[in-house]
Amino acid sequence: MEDEMAESRPLYIGPRLRRLRRELGLTQQAMADDLEISPSYVALLERNQRPVTADMLLRLARTYRLDMAQIAGDDGADYARRVSDVLRDPLFADIDLPSLEIADLAMSFPGVSEALLRLHGAYTRESQALAEQRASGPAAEENEPVREAQRFLGASRNYFHAIDLRAEELSGEIERSGGAAAWLGARGVRLRFLPPDVMVDSLRRFDRHNQQLLIDDTLSASSRAFQIATHIAHTAMRADIVAVVRAAAFAQPITATLVRRALAGYAAAAIVMPYGKFAQAAGARGYDIEALCGLFGTSFEQVAHRLTTLHRPGEERVPFFFLRVDEAGNVSKRLDGAGFPFAAHGGGCPLWSVHQVFRSPGEVRTQWLELPDGQRFFSIARTVVSGEGRHGRTKVTRAVALACAAEEAAKLVYVSGREAENAAVTPIGVTCRLCQRADCAARSVPPIGRDVLADDYRRAAQPYSFAES
């Protein structure tokens, strides 16, 4: 009898259906068209105001090529349990919360339940991070997923031999097929360029139901090509990427996700700029970034990023370090192929021109750098802009820099032989906390291990004067 009652109980999958639609990048109208129902019915299903029927489950599974188990779970009971767990937090101890009200909230208002779960999850994570930071300082960041992913890429010098070789093969196949559209077409995938309002805030979306790769038609030519190549990397090179990620055995699943995404981007760049052709062109053109942009139909940042990967055994080129920062000094990407000692904690040195190019957008700035230990590097920096293409889209300006060892700089078109011998060098530090240059007027904080001199009668030109060690 109980089994019969369970089988006849209405099934509500509102939150799960909403997540599925968002993952597919669909509007309610688009999903309604796919399922041959009305948009209002999709909205009712998502709000748990209608149960899902057996026929609707079959339509969802067939249309989006999903396993029935992925969509047939009982979200209402799961939400009720999760919300109940959250509301047992001591933070809510003085509030009377009957179990019936919690069940009603989860069933009748799944959107509110999801918002509550997200807020409590964010609150819990931030509380834990703050506690760990206070307990162990910067060392607590060592297991943070982004940091772990960066360490992995750095240890590999941002070069992955198997992925690069496979990407070069794919690039040749695509070229022989007559281009990416023809290559995809031969595999049953249609390439379409659609306006942003149809793309639902996506630059790239794969419509599994209709086997279509959809690209925002306002993207630049270089961004279009890169997004298409990224899809090819995620599909045709999935096994190669997964093999690298599994071999690394990361401590956290989030790290694996970040690295998988980074490797897909790496593979996309290798498809658009295949190693052999790109390395040869880079050497022949003196690593002229703008000239390489024209040759391969790519952006300044894409070329700069690719230049950090040229470490194929027997075909090595100049090793570069790559950095991308915003106007507030936040580092959003760094890739090390040149042994540059970038600080793991704290801000960078303000004397490095990568922080100054925002004053001259689009202009390439070069600079000779010397670290406190005497190491010298040559730097190329310029601003790059994302979000261009149409009115109303938020544009973000960042700065990217490439740095190579000073002894390699003569191979670059940016350096003349005479300049390499008599270059004016800018002394910089890794970060103020680790830089012992006492005479730096740009210093923001004292270095670790130095005592600030107490002197009420003299003001030095530098922000701090230090007692003798």
UniProtKB/TrEMBL annotation:
GO terms for cellular component: cytosol. The keyword Calcium does not apply. Pfam families: HTH_3, Peptidase_M78, ScfRs. Residues 17-71 form the HTH cro/C1-type domain. Keywords: DNA-binding, Transcription, Transcription regulation. CDD domains: HTH_XRE (cd00093). Transmembrane segments: none annotated. One of its GO terms (molecular function) is DNA binding. The keyword Transcription applies. Belongs to the short-chain fatty acyl-CoA assimilation regulator (ScfR) family. This is XRE family transcriptional regulator.
